[in-house]
């Protein structure tokens, strides 16, 4: 317990000392900052543990400190259909892997055991640039089925028609440009999910997405996939 608290305090100090990406120069225009009518800040009261433990995701106000273990998800209390989502994230180690799921049905979360991810929903990937180097070092071969700048894709039983450019196997919307920052830096994701279509902006530029998503309503899920990560400034605005 003392070790977990010390880790959380140390990470919190780093987070508070680091400038928000929203305060940094952005050559592509203003970032969506989540201000204005209808926007709601989410914190620990708005999420429920699915198949992690009490160390998987520790909340300090609106900052979520993720250990990455066990593999799994923490879901929102509410289900959402049409919405805008803002979330900032920072990997804490080289080759970190995580993401946020949207439109995850309840059936994919019921009795989900530790070390498994939901078999449905749309994943908006958060992957450190070092993951590519690690994948190749561990024997992976090109062409790569993933990128590290904001892939969007359907998971398991869900379906989506991805926007171009596509991954080599055609299953993912690959980002149209490289926008993500590496571990130790904050990234800003803005997601617009309306009537079965999801679009992702990475650090101020739209890069990927898809249409014809099924299902197109469900939970938001913060992913734990083995590596420590921070989430902050999670804001949502529900739309008609």
TrEMBL record:
Protein name: 3-keto-alpha-glucoside-1,2-lyase/3-keto-2-hydroxy-glucal hydratase domain-containing protein
The keyword ATP-binding is annotated on this UniProt entry: no
Residue span, 3-keto-alpha-glucoside-1,2-lyase/3-keto-2-hydroxy-glucal hydratase domain: 32-237
InterPro entries the UniProt entry points to: AL/BT2_dom
Entry superkingdom: Bacteria
Keywords, comma-separated and alphabetical: Signal
Top-level taxonomy: Bacteria, Pseudomonadati, Planctomycetota, Planctomycetia, Pirellulales
Annotated signal peptide: 1-22
GO molecular function: hydrolase activity
């Amino acid at each position: 317990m003392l070790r977990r608290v010390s880790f959380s305090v140390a990470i919190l100090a780093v987070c508070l000392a680091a400038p928000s990406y929203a305060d940094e120069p952005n050559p592509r225009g203003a970032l969506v900052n989540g201000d204005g009518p209808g926007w709601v800040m989410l914190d620990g009261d708005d999420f429920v543990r699915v198949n992690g433990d009490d160390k998987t995701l520790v909340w300090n106000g609106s900052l979520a400190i993720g250990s990455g273990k066990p593999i799994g998800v923490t879901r929102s209390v509410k289900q959402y259909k049409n919405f805008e989502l803002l979330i900032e994230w920072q990997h804490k180690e080289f080759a970190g892997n995580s993401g946020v799921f949207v439109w995850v049905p309840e059936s994919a979360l019921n009795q989900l055991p530790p070390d498994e991810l939901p078999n449905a929903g749309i994943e908006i990937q958060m992957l450190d640039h070092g993951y590519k180097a690690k994948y190749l070092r561990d024997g992976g071969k090109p062409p790569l089925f993933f990128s590290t700048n904001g892939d969007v894709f359907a998971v398991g039983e869900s379906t989506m028609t991805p926007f171009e450019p596509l991954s080599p196997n055609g299953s993912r919307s690959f980002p149209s440009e490289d926008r993500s920052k590496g571990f130790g830096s904050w990234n800003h994701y803005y997601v617009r999910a309306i009537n079965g279509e999801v679009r992702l902006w990475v650090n101020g530029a739209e890069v990927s997405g898809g249409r014809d998503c099924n299902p197109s309503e469900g939970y938001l899920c913060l992913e734990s996939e083995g590596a420590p990560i921070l989430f902050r400034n999670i804001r949502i605005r529900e739309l008609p």
